[in-house]
Amino acid sequence: MAEGPGAVIPAQTKKTVTDNLKRVQDRIAEAAGRSKRTADDITLVAVTKTVELPVIRLLIEQGMRHFGENRVQQMVQRAAIMHEQYERRRTLGEGQSAPDDICWHMIGHLQRNKVGMMLPWIHMVHSVDSLRLAEEIAERGKKLGLPPIQILIQVNITEEPQKYGIPPAAALYLVEQLTTVEGITVVGLMAMGEATDDPETCRPYFARMYELFEEIRYEGVAGPHFRHLSMGMTQDYTIAIEEGATMVRVGSALFESEAE
Ligand SMILES: *Cc1c(COP(=O)(O)O)cnc(C)c1O
User: Fold this and answer.
1) Which of 47, 64, 97, 257 could form a disulfide with 68 if both were Cys (CB 3.0 to 4.6 A apart)?
2) How many CB atoms lie within 10 A of CB 203?
3) How far from chain centre, in Å, is Cα 50?
4) Closest alpha carbon to 168 in 151, 149, 192
């Protein structure tokens, strides 16, 4: 699919994505209701790693503002292109169709040597899982003169050895350590369930994450900014919300046609 500003997307793709977005938003609202909250309490991050820019633009037209990518290079490229296109539109007086409040989320494993190129474009980093990485983000951010970078601590709640994230038992201590680091603000926790055919198997993990999140809040070490719990993807986002997620990261459910 072409990436140029004039690129159009096929009518069928447009319909699929539009219908999917509506369905995901409805399901989010229902799940929020079941956990005594409303849709406004949940941030939907559209994970756009598998789609092209015209599809991202379509979502923006439909009011979406939060986008997640798992590779730094792709995120930076996309953020820069969108920024330039929208700047141009604003210069031409077409500002209504060129929002300046698009938020890019880094959700994938992050190498320290990529931090510098990412920071100017980033709204929130979901995948911080070491003191060294957090310190690198803080140092680079300060050098670039940026306000404190919002980070989430990634917890390996399923404790699978091949997965990124710190062990749950280490979360409180890491958050505590990071509160004294200038240049970052720890705004919450992030986790993934396990890949499964039965998403109910993820519920206990999400419940444990919520307990951990509450424990850290109760300890008062992280301050009022510590209020995000990023968990749940296509297979399990409604369950994650029922268990207390404030932010879900959804890709396939937005972009693939329903198999039913
Ligand atoms: C790809 C990805 C998602 C979204 O996955 P879907 O199953 O397509 O919804 C969420 N979180 C992370 C960390 C991802 O890499």
Assistant:
1) 47
2) 15
3) 15
4) 192
**Which of 72, 162, 233 for mutating ligand 1's site (highest number of atoms within 8 Å of CB)?**
233
Alpha-carbon gap, residue 209 to 187, rounded angstroms: 15
Distance 173 CA to ligand 1 centre (A): 27
CA 242 to chain centroid, in Å, comes to 18
Q: What is the pLDDT of residues 95-110, one digit of tens each?
A: 777 888 999 999 999 9
The CA distance from 217 to 239, in Å, is: 22
Phi, then psi, of 249 in degrees rounded to 5: -115, 105
Helix 203-219 to helix 171-178 angle (10° resolution) is 40
Q: Which atom of ligand 1 is nearest to the CA of 250?
A: 9
List, for residues 201-234, the tens digit of each pLDDT value. Answer: 999 999 999 999 999 999 988 999 999 999 999 9
- Residue 237 CA: nearest ligand 1 atom is 9
Q: What is the DSSP string of 27-82?
A: HHHHHHHHTT--GGG-EEEEE-TTS-HHHHHHHHHTT--EEEES-HHHHHHHHHHH
| Backbone φ, ψ for residue 136 (5° rounding) | -60, -45
pLDDT the model gives residue 4: 52
Q: How far is C-alpha 186 from the chain's CA centre?
A: 14
